[in-house]
Every structure is written in C-alpha cells, then in structure tokens.
Design a protein that fits this description.
Helix content is about 45%, strand content about 10%. Helix 5 packs across helix 7. It is mainly alpha-helical. It starts with 9 loop residues before the first helix and ends in a 19-residue tail after the last helix. It folds into 3 domains: about 10-105, Double Stranded RNA Binding Domain; about 105-200, Tyrosine recombinase, N-terminal domain (DNA polymerase, domain 1, Orthogonal Bundle), CATH 1.10.150.130; about 215-365, Orthogonal Bundle (hpI Integrase, Chain A), CATH 1.10.443. Keywords: DNA integration, DNA recombination, DNA-binding. This is Integrase. Belongs to the 'phage' integrase family.
Length: about 375
Amino acid sequence: MPRQATPLTDSTIKTARPKEKPYKLTDGQGLYLDIKPNGSKLWRFKYRFGGREMTPVISWRLSYPDLSLVKARLRRTEARAMLAEGLDPGAQKKAAKQAQKTESLTFETVSREWFAYNAPRWADSTAYKAKLYLENDLLPSIGSRPIAAITRPELVDLVRKVESRGTLNAAGKIRQWLHQIFRYGLARGVVENNPATDLDVVAAPPKAARHHPHVPFAELPKLLEQLDAAKLNALTRWATRLLILTAARPSELRAVPWAEFDLEAATWTTPKERMKARRPHVVPLPRQAVAILRQLQEVTGRYDLVFPGQQNAERPMSENTINKALRLMGYEGRQTGHGFRHLPTEHRAERPRLQPRLDRAPACARRRRRNPRHLPG
C-alpha cells in the first residue's frame, strides 16, 4: 500500500528554504509545491492521462503565497473532477486560455493584421482604398467590438448607413472587405463563421446609370475648350489632359511617381505592382503629353509624385478630383475620368488605320478588340 503524504501546512511552506537544486513538497493526491533555487514556489499537479504522466504548473502567473494552499487544493479538486469525466485538465486549461484570448481580439486588431498581410500583394491604389475604408467606415463603427461577437445584423446596419449616403460603390467595397476580413479570421481560428457572407442579398438596388460614361469622340474638342476655360487648379487641368492623351486609369495616373516617366524616350513604364493586371506596362507618350509633363516638372518635380495631394505631398491627388472637375464643367452623368479610356477604341472603330497605335495603348485597351465601344474597368 503506497505511503500517504502528510498534508502541507502554511508554516511548513513558509519555512521551506531554496536549495542548490529544485525540490518539492508534496501535499497529496497529485498536488505538490515545486521550490526553485531562486526561491520561487510553484504549484504543480501530477496526473496520468492517455498513458502519460503530466505535471503541469497550476499557475505560472501566481506562485505561493499569491496562490495560497487553500486555492491550490481547490484547483486540484477541479482537475480531479475533469479526470473523472475523462477530460485532460491540462488540455482544458489551454483551450480555455485560447478561448479567452480569442474573445478579447477586437475587429480592429484582426482587420489591421489582415491589411498588413495583404497590402504587399496589392497595387498601391488598392491598398490605399482599403485603408481608407477601414479608417473611415469600419473601425469607427465596429473596431472596438470583439470580432467573434460581431453579428450579421450589425454588419447589415453598417453597410446600410454607407448606402444611405448615396455611395453605393463604397458600400459594395465595404461588403467585399468585410467578407475578406472575416475569411481571414476563419483561417486564423478567431471566428467560427463568416457573418459577412451574402450581404449583397440585402444590398440597395444600384442606380440606373451608365458604367463609366463618356461623350462621343466628336465632342472631345468642345470638352477640351471647356477644360481650358474652366476655373480649375492647374494640376487638375493637366491631369485631365494626360488622362485623355494616355487613356490611363485615373487611379494609376494620380499616384504615378516621376520615376516612371522617361521624357527623353517619351515613355511611361508602370511596374507590375501598380498595374491591375499585375504585369509591367510601357506606354509611348505623344508629344503633347511630354510637353505637359515638362511643364509639370517645374511645379511638382521636387516631389516623388507627379500629382501630390494639396494637404499632404506624400499622398496622391484625391481620387474624386477629376470627376469633380468634370461635374463643374457640366458633364455629370456624361463623362468620368475613367470614361476617357473608351475614347481610343471608339476612334479606332471610325479610323481602322489607327490599329497599330492602339496596339501600344494601355494594357486592357487591347483585350476587347471585338467590341470597340467598350473598355473594361
């Protein structure tokens, strides 16, 4: 018959002094005090589970006397009850700690982790927009909420608030980002479901409007006259003319650094990181574009960006600048900055001899030759 350990007393524990090597004081039924050479006294519980002997520390954070003899015995009683139910006390403790950690993770913490993970693979414009939606719409609304506690109705309310401003495109982007953030949370194991799935089912119906509207090519001279006459910032006027001359995406043009232009060779080389198709692209520049860029150099050549923002030169011109200018000129609903990309293919349809020039035009201008009136966005 095994010898029964004499239960410990507080006086026995208090008078126990450290030795050169660790030693233990046994209380019985698996509970003992591990005394280290540095004087720390940690409670451990020894048990067998699945044929293996376990000796986990009851609390790394609390040693004796912070975790008293009475409380250590209560922990032992709880652990023995788990063993009686066929549960591993050590595994249960780890699971509880992980659950507590997960429950305390906020949407802001996970969304910023998601952004940091994905941003290096995105185009600069995509990363800029994603961060903008995070900072302006998502984090102020649900940033402080534990991500595992966020419900679908909360997300529906959030998206509807954005829709109520009339910004349906922004609402669509926010639905997309929410879905991706919760997918990331699922993969990380911090949420058990994705409440952002199928939010498009309850989305506001889209407005009946042309996608990237543009005027007929024949109206372009009149538009250019109005552009010169309009009371606009010089950078806005130059940016609009360059859009027309290069058929670039507004997002690519407004964020272009001077390093991408070779004015002597009259070329614009966009690295793959800034291209929607994720391939580097070289655009030959017409002499009019080179002339505009030489004028621009005198104004913004000291900055990294060709079109720096008014408030912060390290950020690009606002994405709404050109469209706002076109609205002021009376072209609302008829012409957008992105709509200028349709003009080269429309003109090609009227003048087939321009085909060789189109072959050197922006990347996606060459992918839709069978439908010359439309360029994909």
